[in-house]
Description:
Layout: H1 10-29, H2 31-34, H3 41-72, H4 78-86, H5 88-99, H6 104-130, H7 134-155, H8 161-209, H9 226-237, H10 243-273, H11 278-290, H12 292-308, H13 318-326
Helix pairs in contact: 1-3, 1-4, 3-4, 3-5, 3-8, 4-6, 5-6, 6-8, 7-8, 8-10, 9-10, 10-12, 11-12
Amino acid sequence: MDQTNHQPDIKRIFGNIALIFVAVFLPGIEWSLFGWVQLFLPILVFVFLVKYGTFVGSRFILSGAGLALLVGLFTQPIDVLLFSLSLIPAGYVLARSALQGDSPAVSGLKGAATLAACWGLLIAGIGVVTGNSPYNAILTTLNSGIDSVVKEYSQNEQIAPDTAIMLEATLEQMKVVVPIILPAMFLSCAMFSTWFTMVLGNRLAQKYAGREVWPRYRFWQLPDKLIWLGILSAFMAFLPLGPLKGVAVNILILLSVLYCIQGFAVCVFFMNKWNVPILLRSFIYVMIALQSLGTIMLLMIGVADTWLNFRKLNVPDTESKEDSQDE
């Protein structure tokens, strides 16, 4: 049952509407400076719905977004404004899923699918209206960039001929590979945005609404059977199956992202268990994120956790014991 647990006063009502308005409207003023604000729009939607309930929370969201749309139509590019609005449904779906008691894996799947669908509809709509698909524009821009780099290397006399040939072949191969994996790159962005919303939104819901709708991030775990989809996709990726091979490669990339997220959850679990100082913990997280080797390690840990269960999450009362130690 959806109930409003927090009844805001007049000042808080206008403040909440203003938060949504700013999150939707501000990026369109100067995206290079304020584009990062869009990351927090689904989180605001999520927290409002969890804290105030669907009925009251929706009023804040619709009022702020509607006002931003009305003002933005006359003051900023419509595509940036529509992109901001496309982030709102994911927050709704995540909040609804969480309040229904879905697991983080199920909620994340729903949220990422919703976000990807909204982006897909936005791209298709812009393509129909302008006659120039943003998806094709991205491919054209990438190919033009690669051609420019190849031309620069070929005219650079300081580069050895053998090296220039190898670089040119590598760059030309990228022109073939990028169109194949671009859907996975697109969906990976939706997955990362959903993950960020869930992790931060869950903590903010605890702080401002007095409830956690999911367990702590360090206890999150993917379904064990998902690994078999990765094994099947890896097998198909090495077979001459035409378009199916491209689908398998994209699935492998998406699963790699998911298992990196699980690997990071394992790292957070043991950092908390060993009481690693916050400053050192933050430094380690940054190093893992910036180093390609760190990403590979997260992937390996995430996959291995499926079979080895490093956190012993199947042991009864593990979560409650860890929570009591954290307190």
